Amino acid sequence: MSSKFNRPSTSSMDEHFSSLEDSEIFLRKRYRDHSPDDSLEAGELSDALSDDEDVPGCPLPSTPEDNELLEAEMTEVLKAGVLSDEIDLGALAHNAAEQAEVFVRKVWEASWKVVHFKHLPKWLQDNDYLHKGHRPPLQSFGACFKSIFRLHTETGNIWTHLLGCIMFIGAAIYFLIRPSWEVNWEEKMIFSAFFLGAILCLGFSFAFHTVSCHSEVIGKLFSKLDYCGIAMLIMGSFVPWLYYGFYCHYRHKIIYLSVVTVLGFFSIVTSLWDKFSTPQLRPVRAGVFMAFGLSGVIPAFHYVYMEGWFNDISRASLGWLVLMGLLYILGAMFYALRIPERWFPGKFDLWGQSHQIFHILVIVAALVHFHGISEMAMNRVSLGECDVRHASIVL
Ligand SMILES: [Zn+2]
């Protein structure tokens, strides 16, 4: 059909024609007015129009009949939907309310501002020497983890132990994939105890400082994990030292390892006690872990008594052990006494606060210990296997 006889499709046309007859009259008129010379005859036009009417399929959507048809169809579909429970209006309303809530929460979470210590809820008030820059409660894990990239009182604590944790994971992988002629499986097992302790301690600490502002329940749960992590690091540090220090003294080795396990278990149980994490018990916490760590003095003196202090191997093993002990004690003192913010309240809110110093000293102490036990392991290799006669006397 010629393009001249295409059906009118604008909305203005819709308004003018209320029926097919009207549109036929219009087309006939238009044909007479504008196409007198057109070769198409009136009869052909009638044929064309009747052809159009006979064409099967959807009527063009711009005609008034189409709108009515569509409306009728939509009503039928909705009716059927409601009747057959396919469209649950109650659920739709509930979903809309939920989506609005999620939206409002996301907007708030993205736009939270740090607050002053006195505006924190009681359960988040830990160190009153840190005045400004505290995170408000963030009731979603997503928001807590996003806060890693914002500046507040916990940013330094989070990153020190996150980076420390990644460093020890890397060191553990490097050590464990050494070929067996370089490091045998038994040594790998012994060192794994230390790596596991260090990774768990730093990992739990990172997690605690990240989600501590989530809610009171989550904060308490993760603070317990944080303390358990410290107990595991101390236990894990003892294992290689006792293993190499008492390499040929099997009975002592077993006794000391058992005592360390019992003390570690006791520290973990104490950590799980609800009141243990309260600010009032901060010195008690420092005391428990210091006592556990210092219990290493007993096997160390025993070692000196057996091997003597004045030889290179003893000095290497004990020198690093003493340095590690001093670093931990120093860290625990910073932690318990809250130095330097105690002397300059509000001046170390974001950087340089006692907890960050404590975190860094823990990492340095763990690295010192790793170096110490690596030296002990190398010395052991240079000494060769145990003297059976000597070992049997000790047993
Ligand atoms: Zn911490």
Quick summary:
The protein has 395 residues and is mainly alpha-helical.
Description:
Zn(2+) binds at residues 209, 355, 359. It is a multi-pass membrane protein. One of its GO terms (molecular function) is signaling receptor activity. One of its GO terms (cellular component) is plasma membrane. The protein is mainly α. It has helices at residues 11-16, 20-34, 42-54, 64-83, 89-110, 141-146, 155-176, 185-211, 216-245, 250-271, 282-294, 297-307, 312-337, 354-383, 388-394. The protein folds into two domains: 3-83, no CATH class; 122-394, Up-down Bundle (Rhopdopsin 7-helix transmembrane proteins), CATH 1.20.1070. The protein has 15 helices and no strands. Helix 7 (155-176) runs antiparallel to helix 8 and helix 10 packs antiparallel against helix 11. It binds zinc ion. Residues 157, 205, 209, 355, 359 line the site of zinc ion.
Features:
mainly alpha, 15 helices, binds zinc ion, single chain, elongated, Rhopdopsin 7-helix transmembrane proteins, 395 residues, 2 domains
Secondary-structure map:
Elements: H1 11-16, H2 20-34, H3 42-54, H4 64-83, H5 89-110, H6 141-146, H7 155-176, H8 185-211, H9 216-245, H10 250-271, H11 282-294, H12 297-307, H13 312-337, H14 354-383, H15 388-394
Helix pairs in contact: 7-8, 7-14, 8-9, 8-14, 9-10, 9-14, 10-11, 11-13, 13-14
The chain binds zinc ion.
